[in-house]
Amino acid sequence: MKSIILFTVLLICAKYGLNQKELTLEKSIIGYDLYPSTVKQLGWLSDVDKYFYATDTSILIKTADCVIDYEILISDLDKNKGIVPQVISLSDQWIVYRVGSQIVKKMYRATNEMTKAALVLSFPKQAQHIKYCKENFSVAYTVKNNLFVATTIDSMIPITSNEDENIISGQAIHRYEFGISEGIFWSPDGSKLAFYQKNETDVADYPLLNINETPGALKTVKYPMAGQKSEYGKVGLYDIETKKLSYLSTTGKDDAYLTNLTWGPNNQKIYLAQVNREQNEMLLNQYDAKSGLHTESLVYLKNDKWVEPEYPLYFNPVNDKEFIWVSEHNGFMELYTFDLNKMKYSKLSNLKQYKSIRKGKKTFLGGKGFPITSVIGYNNTGTHFYFMATGIDPKNNLGYRVNVKNGKINLLTSEEGIHNCKVSSSGSYITDVYSSLGSDTKTDVINVNTTDVVNIHASANSLKEYNIGETVFTTHKSVDGFDLHGRLIYPAQFDSTIKHPVLVYVYGGPHAQLVKNNWLGGASLWMHWMANQGYVVYTIDGRGSANRGFKFESVIHRKLGEKEMEDQLVGVEYLKTLPYVDSNRLAVHGWSFGGFMTTSLMLKHPNVFTTGVAGGPVMDWKWYEVMYGERYMDTPDENPEGYKQTSTLNYVKNLKGKLLTIHGTVDDVVVMQHNLAFIKACIDNGVQTDFFPYPMHPHNVRGKDRVHLMTKVLNYVLDHNK
């Protein structure tokens, strides 16, 4: 009898998690051991089908069939404070790695033993934006606002020497919009260097207070607000041998946007997408790399909402006249092939000269259109091109390859989920790091020709000892018929017979997707802590969010927040149909665009939510940056009614529930003027609200202080959503 009782108790404990640990809020935020483990520095060798990754003691090189080919011991390599060196380049003969401010090369194949480390390059410790070139063993980098190159140990050759700190070289320009992530571009043979340069002389200075000095000191940053003067971009060219510096002769106005910079494969041409300040027209231009002169305009695009090129050109490795370009002009981000020998340069409009890899079809793979999410590249024979795309379920991110001659597309990743793939030099293999709502992270090597899969790493269930509730996906319809995908997180001991309060977590803006088919469904662990306080935590990706195509996203043009809120309310109506939801106890929280959405929902739909917490919120779009703000709202002069209707300052009288707004005091993305102006409007209108600053934090609160932040946010919800 005792055995039966004991067995029954164990079954109950197993079912309800009574023998498991409770997830603390602090652990959910800084408990990095709770996240799935991954393979470190995973990559392919540059010249053979072998891959490598780092362990704590070595760099392992394995053949494509996952057999160890060589082990380079970390003990033989220099260490920097115990950190595994960063592999920069690895061939079948040598390894180049970075340790601190040094770049080291070692041969390992000739004698089957590592030779003594050869210090190749060194650069100042204060160097930033470091870009190594393996073709000439040189490195370009920036120090403050200038660009330098090192070709030998301790060399420091200045490419620019501007004393005016408003002129900045070698860094990303246009505030990282238009797919820009870097500012230094080596030519394919390493003989030349192209770089972005921006002149911020006419951009307004914005003051940020440093409280760590006595007395407090002002630090100014350049911040171009909507409708005001912006930065002026240029592209510099530097010849390593002649040491000659020149600039591309770009066309159009000084405040046009220059992006998607690409070197031609023969080092003779540079390609650049140029977008006008209004962001409704784009030219894809070709330039002579020697003279810097504009030679041809290959593509012209125009859209009455916006044009946003985000990808460089991808040249075929065996045909320097053929390239692939990624464009959203037909509604979804798609691939197009170009043959420079057959291009007509006279009158180019509406991309009539495009040959779609999808053979002119508007949709493919199941008959439904969906976007490419990222590009992997060609194989070394130029027969196939590899990319990532959502597939017909936008919660996924899957690996594909396409035959560039006949347009045949193959799905390379068989399992649903979020995948991150890298391709070997021959294109015969890919590494695939992935997870799904139902699985932890796995890493496979896939033979794309035979579809054979070898697993090289599977993370253990890092949450198996903790009480974690169920996560489920939901789907709803927008008013205009689009599928809207949501995510529900339940308490670990969920009781469907009682009413639960709800926290809606929202972002809602462009270039973001919260509901994904990966580990925990894309949710943060703190959401599970909140669920275990008796809450249901809900998120829905509405119109305007990423990876759904141009029509889904562009409906927000000139009226940010309107359609996005409409879709959030679709989610609210769904919640109200659930018998276990207390529809009188709904709270909402979001950050940045999500802070704008939180505040807007509290003010424009005051009877829906009892409580809101808005972090780093945009309160009035006239105070947001030019590049992002004008794309979606145009300028305040062009769209005065839109700016008026979207400004939260005009609706403060509507506030009924409890609202806490939070801001980092040195936020240079959404400047604190937004929050302070909102509080001033509340004071002017006799409206009580709550505010909490995080001194000396930028746009978000990181590190140990994030525990304080999320405690503040969630306690506010728990205290007031009653």
Describe the structure.
The protein has 722 residues and is an alpha+beta fold. Among the domains are: 39-118; 123-200 and 230-312, Methanol Dehydrogenase, Chain A, CATH 2.140.10; 471-720, Alpha/Beta hydrolase fold, catalytic domain (Rossmann fold). 14% of the residues lie in helices and 35% in strands. It is built from ten helices and 43 strands. The strands form ten sheets. It has an eight-stranded mixed β-sheet, sandwiched between helices. Strands 13, 14, 15, 18 and 19 form a five-stranded antiparallel β-sheet that branches. A four-stranded antiparallel β-sheet has the order 1-2-3-4, with no helix packed on it. Strand 24 and strand 25 (319-327) form a beta hairpin. The longest helix is centred in the C-terminal third of the chain and has 16 residues, at 705-720. The protein is globular and about 70 Å long. The relative contact order is 0.08. Residues 1-17 and 344-368 have low confidence and may be disordered.
